[in-house]
Structures are given as structure tokens and as C-alpha cells.
Amino acid sequence: MTHPAIPCYCKPSAPLRKRRFLMAFLILVMACGTGAFAEDVRQPNNPPSSLPATHLLGFADARNNSKGTVSIEGDALQFKKNGKAAVQVKIASIHALLLGDLSRQVGGVPVTLAKAAVPYSGGRALSLFTHKKYDTLTLEYVDAEGGFHGAIFELKKGHAKGLRNELLAKGAQVSNAGNEPAKQTAEASSENK
Amino acid sequence: MKTNRPALFVMTTVLLALAIAQPARLSAESATQWTVQVSKVDPGAVRLTPSFQVAIYENLLQELSKTKRFKEVLRDGDQKTANATDLILLKTTVEKYTAGSETRRAVTTVTGATKLTVRTQLSTPDGKIILERTVHGNVRFMGSNLRATHNLARNIAKTIKTSSLPERPSSVVTKATNSTPSDDVVVVEFP
To answer: Measured between CA atoms, how close is B155 to chain A, in angstroms?
Structure first.
């Protein structure tokens, strides 16, 4: 009495094959997601040479509220707007670096119009979900004639600290370099008098 | 004799306009004789975030330049002030600050306003106050919190523009005591 010894897993049925394929696909997606997340977490500690940033005001001759990249080139901090010439400031002339954060509504005019179009003031509720938190880096530096300048950059959450540390490592003359900067919060509800 | 009446009318109008415009131009010229140095913003007893201090200072420099009221607008610490004879200082002290929230403004409309109140002083290098005002800058509906600093700077510049400044030192010389014309000692008295 001989039966052909073919194990069941050798010839899987069609539904089983489909399930296996789905499982493999899910594992692949999760692996990719974990990799991307790990990279995102690593970024603040070891910042890349150039970071996307919005120049809010005050940095050399750059236009206010312009988007571009901020980077360290040699002994200078450089801001480059897409397709425009870079402006830079010597790192040695920087004497204060302050971290902060701010929360702002995203989407610009299209989202604002869309919110206004939602009936029964539903757009207001939408505002609860259309805001994003950013880091800010405030620099204080002096020009060649001794004039005091202040500049503010808006960076992605977690990027400002890395940039600050890199500037300190490159020789920014910050008086409180050893201290952890006081975190400034642009959104507080209490009234200061 | 035939006279060209429309041409005469146009000519008279032009002459009248020139006559009216002339004194205004002269007074604007005399007002632009001053050089102003903007000092760093003093937070006073208020816990104002450094980004707000920097933003008020930088916006003030921009807005004052736009008014064309001053010959030159200098930064704090600028070495050019050593040679400036017609210098006045602009000091800004924060008196009150209410931190707002853009999200709260967007959701409720009536709450979450960012409010700033400052005392602004124009003075001579020896400390005589020329102008002192309390100015406000708020964001109530649209815009980020930092926009309050822009509104504040614009209001300060507007206040200075509409105020009458004293004449330039050289034109209000009241007493000159010296024999050699090259190194006159000049005593200036402001109204």
C-alpha cells in the first residue's frame, strides 16, 4: 500500500498562494516604512549638508518668507533660494543661536478658500487639522561694520537642533554654548505683563 | 488781440500746483536730515521670545527706511554712528505681550489674538527725548503670530512719520563760541 508522499505545502491551493503573496507584500511595505522612519529619526542628530528651510526675515539680503535650503559651506552659513544666488554669513560673526517652535496653518489661500466654502462654519473645525508644527532657529550676528542683525529660519520639526549643534561645532561664538537654549514657544495662552 | 484761454488756464493751474508743492518738498527735505540708529529691542519685564525681539528690530529697520523720513537708518552697534553729527536714537521697550495662537484664531475667530504694546522713544545721543509714544501691534484674524511684529513696526514708523521732528542741529544753532571757523563748538537746543 503505497501512497505518493506529496506534502500538502508542496502544492498550495490558489487562496493560500494569494494569502502568502499578500503577507510578503505587507512585510515588504512594513520594512520600507520602518527604514524611512528610522532615517527620519536619525536626521536631527546627523543633519545633512543642506536642509530645506523658510527664511522668515533678516538673513543678509535674502527675501523675507522665501523658501530654499540652508547649509554650511566652509566657514559660512548659506541660504539658497531655489534658482537664485546664495547669500551667506560668516559663522564666526554669529553670537546667539536660539531654538523655538511655532505652529502655523498650512495650505495657503486654496485651503483658506476651501474652509470658507464649507457650510455651517465647518471650515473652522477643519482648521484643527490643517496646522503643522515647525522649529525656528533665531540667529544674532554682526556685520563687518559692527551692526547688529537678527535672522529667523523656519525648519522642519527636529532639524533646528541639529543645525544649531553643527554651527556650534563649526565655531559660532555663542556665549551660552554649553547651556541648553530656552525653548521658546510662540503659542502660549497666558498673558505676560 | 486773440488770447488762448485754455492754455492760460493750464499754465495757471501748473504754476499754482508748483507753488503749493514747493513748501511741502522743502519741509520733507529738512526732515530727512536726521540719521536714526535703531537700538535692540528691550524686553523689559516681559518674557518675550527672542524671535519676537529680533522680528520687531528687523521690521523696524525696514519700515523706517520705507518712510524716507531719515537720511540714513543705522543698526545697533554700527560704527558709522561715530561720525554722524545728526544722530537720533530709537529705543523700543516692550510693555505688554499677549502670546496668541494662529489655530485658535482660525477656529474661533474671536480668541487667540497676538498683542504687543511697546513704548518707543526718539532721543538725542545725550539723552534728550524728542518723541515718546506707546504703540500697539496686533494680529486678530489672519496671519502668523510674527505678523504682530510687522504690524507693530509699521505703526511705529507711521507714528514717527506723522510727528514733527525738530530741525537738524546745524540749522538750530543758538550759540557758537569760538574764534576759528574750522572747529566751532555748537550748542544745540531742542524745543
So the answer is: 18
Cell 522743502 belongs to residue: B26
Touching check for A179 and chain B: CB below 8 Å? no
Residue B23 in any domain: the answer is no
Residue of A nearest to B54 (CA): A150
Give CA torsion, residues B62, B67, B68, B73, to 10 deg: -40
Q: What are the tens digits of pLDDT across the range A6-53?
A: 554 555 666 667 666 655 554 554 444 434 434 444 444 445 578 999
Q: What is the pTM of this model?
A: 0.72
φ, ψ (nearest 5 deg) of residue A89: -135, 140
Instruction: Give the count of domains, chain B.
Output: 1
Which residue of chain A is at minimal alpha-carbon distance from B115?
A191
Domain span at residue B127?
30-189
pLDDT for A3:
55
Q: Residue B183 maps to which CATH number?
A: 3.40.50
Cα angle for residues B132, B157, A81 (degrees, 5° grid): 140
CA distance B79 to chain A (A): 6
Interface membership of A128 toward B (CB under 8 Å): yes
Cβ–Cβ of B99/A189 closer than 8 Å? yes
A96 contacts B50? CB cut-off 8 A: yes
d(CA B64, CA A47): 38
Res A192 pLDDT > 50: no
Residue B165 within any structural domain of the chain: yes
B11 in a structural domain: no
Measure CB to CB from residue A105 to each of B74, B98, B102 and give the nearest one: B102
Helix locations, chain B, DSSP H = 5-31, 50-67, 102-108, 147-162
Query: Chain A residue with minimal CA distance to B44?
Result: A193
